[in-house]
Write a structure and sequence with these properties.
The complex is a heterodimer.
Chain A (H helix, E strand, L loop, with lengths): L1 E4 L10 H21 L7 H17 L17 H23 L1 H4 L1 H4 L8 H27 L11 H25 L2 H16 L7 H4 L3 H9 L1 H15 L5 H25 L8
Helix pairs in contact in A: 1-6, 2-3, 2-6, 3-6, 3-7, 3-8, 3-11, 6-7, 7-12, 11-12
Chain B lengths: L10 E13 H4 L4 H9 L7 E13 L3 E5 L6 H9 L6 E7 L2 E3 L13 H11 L4 H15 L14 H12 L6 E5 L7 H17 L3 E5 L3 H7 L2 E6 L2 E7 H10 L3
Parallel strand pairs in B: 3-7, 3-8, 5-6, 6-7
Antiparallel strand pairs in B: 1-2, 1-4, 8-9
The chains are: A mainly alpha, B alpha/beta.
Keywords (chain B): ATP-binding, Nucleotide-binding, Transport
GO molecular function (chain B): ABC-type transporter activity; ATP binding; ATP hydrolysis activity
Family (chain B): Belongs to the ABC transporter superfamily.
Chain lengths: 276, 253
């Protein structure tokens, strides 16, 4: 057991919290700078990327796989349906995939300096949130193009983002801790993300769920990403309040993920250094 | 981790009966298959390696202590426990004050970032405030003598230049405890002298506790007052630097 007693001096952060926040801010800035260093369009890619993805998907699923889009979503609404779903799912897939290796990547640091280990996976979720914020510019452009006027339902946006980022942080903590001990998870997770992409109504419309066998329907409604996407589309696209079920499921998954992530991380973090 | 300030504050570092056990079997596991095979064979909890065995010592505030021992004797493990990155299997280690770890300079630097960006990132990791780094930025760059290269990515730096920046950041403020592990061996002879001068300056001020690890026994004798000799995980000797270094040399003779 190590016991450390901090002395007070102006040079150092007064509280652990202050130190961790400064580290988080520096790490997010670092990731951001590295992502866009030496690219001509730089940060504009954060806006362009989701737009281009939307265009590609809109073309594919309006021509080759046109049966994926049916029922309640009109052709004019479909691009907005796509982009809102895609950026929400990307927030989760990007943050968890990068959090997965965050502890291993920080190994040289963790072996030498005493830092709270949770900042590394948590930082990845925050970085993905920053990227998500840029993607919202793309959403605004699409809404402008299709003359969709935003409504006051957007005040729900902070709520869904807090829940989603909490969910991502929880998953990130869990995955980063497990990956330290079992490197297999890195390979496994990319398969999970692919499967999850297909089992979530990102490009196919939710009408299909009603035609599924009962057991698959239950899986769909329990799917956390289905619920987060539903929440986002409710406020951006359908311009209604989220249903109590959607809100409840989003909150349930956020709490479950963060509790599980915290417990596993907390229980195993003192052993990380032996494996990295 | 909160400690009690009531227990003898004149000691900066207290190592009480510390034992470090590494599990050799689980160290080599990196995937699920190996893990389950080991569980099936009931091999998972055997073959222990004791890197440190019941080590106890105390370091007074302002004392300059050298750690000596041959390679693999447990010196680095001891330093890691004191630095707080490794948790002792048994016993406890109490540290009072801010630690500036110089164990392998430049841990946490990102080679893609510029020196300026790295100074802020590394400063944050060492627990400095943004205000403090803003105020002392010029001082750090002056000491490192790298004014012209401050906006260049670190990947274009030589290892000596990286070490300069790292040393300048870690010692810009007078730490309570300074851990020096082979750091003075990087950089040219002029910068080595500059670093040693700064460490000597800290020592003369009398408030800084220094833990010094070096394979150069002459350097230990020159800088330290007291030496601790760890050999194969056992505390072999603890006393005035001349006596311990004499005995340490004696084992080869």
């Amino acid at each position: 057991m190590a016991v450390a007693i901090k002395s007070q001096s102006a040079a150092h952060a007064r509280t652990e919290m202050e130190k961790d926040l400064f580290i988080l801010q520096q790490l997010v800035t670092k990731d951001f700078k590295i992502r866009y260093r030496r690219s001509v369009l730089g940060v504009a890619w954060s806006v362009l990327n989701p737009l281009l993805m939307m265009i590609v998907m809109a073309i594919v699923f309006s021509t080759i796989f046109a049966q994926g889009r049916n029922g309640s979503i009109t052709p004019e609404m479909y691009p907005l349906y796509l982009i809102v779903g895609n950026i929400t799912f990307t927030l989760m897939s990007e943050s968890t995939s990068s959090a997965l290796t965050s502890i291993i990547d920080a190994s040289s640091l963790l072996k030498k300096v005493k830092v709270h280990r949770f900042v590394f996976p948590v930082q990845k979720a925050l970085f993905s949130l920053v990227n998500f914020a840029f993607s919202l510019v793309a959403v605004a452009l699409v809404m402008l193009w299709f003359r969709v006027v935003p409504t006051w339902h957007l005040i729900w946006l902070p709520v869904v983002l807090i829940l989603l980022v909490t969910f991502c942080m929880g998953l990130g903590l869990l995955l980063s801790a497990l990956t330290v001990f079992f490197r297999d998870i890195r390979h496994l997770w990319s398969v999970v993300i692919t499967a999850w992409t297909y089992f979530t109504p990102i490009f196919w419309t939710t009408d299909f769920i009603a035609q599924m066998p009962r057991i698959l329907q239950l899986v769909m409604y329990a799917n956390p990403m289905y619920n987060y996407l539903q929440f986002m589309r409710d406020i951006f696209l359908f311009q209604t309040n989220p249903t109590a079920f959607t809100l409840g499921m989003c909150a349930f998954w956020a709490v479950l993920a963060i509790v599980a992530g915290y417990l596993v991380f907390h229980k195993t973090e003192h052993k990380f250094i032996l494996y990295i | 981790m909160a400690g009690t300030a009531t227990s003898t504050p004149e000691y900066a570092i207290e190592v009480n009966d510390v034992t470090m056990i590494f599990n050799m079997a689980s160290e080599q596991l990196n995937n699920l298959k190996e893990y389950f095979i080991k569980i099936m064979r009931h091999e998972l909890f055997f073959s222990e390696f004791r890197a440190l065995k019941h080590i106890s010592f105390k370091v007074r505030r302002g004392e300059v202590v050298g750690l000596v021992g041959t390679n693999g004797s447990g010196k680095s493990t001891m330093l890691k426990i004191i630095a707080g990155v490794l948790e002792a299997s048994e016993g406890e280690c109490i540290v009072r004050g801010n630690i500036a770890p110089l164990i392998e300079l430049g841990a946490g630097f990102d080679m893609e970032l510029t020196a300026r960006e790295n100074i802020y990132l590394n400063g944050a990791l060492l627990g400095y405030t943004k205000q403090f780094i803003d105020d002392h930025f010029d001082e750090i760059v002056e000491f490192a003598e790298l004014r012209d290269f401050v906006d260049m990515p670190l990947k274009n730096y030589s290892s000596g230049m990286v070490a300069r920046i790292a040393f300048a950041i870690a010692t810009v403020t007078e730490p309570d405890i300074l851990i020096v592990d082979e750091t003075l061996s990087v950089g040219d002879v002029f910068f080595q002298q500059k670093c040693e001068d700064r460490i000597q300056h800290f020592i003369k001020n009398g408030d800084v506790t220094v833990l010094f690890v070096s394979h150069s026994i002459e350097q230990v004798e020159r800088i330290c007052q007291r030496a601790i000799w760890i050999e194969k995980g056992d505390l072999r000797m603890d006393g005035p630097v001349a006596e311990v270094c004499e005995a340490y040399r004696g084992q080869f003779g």
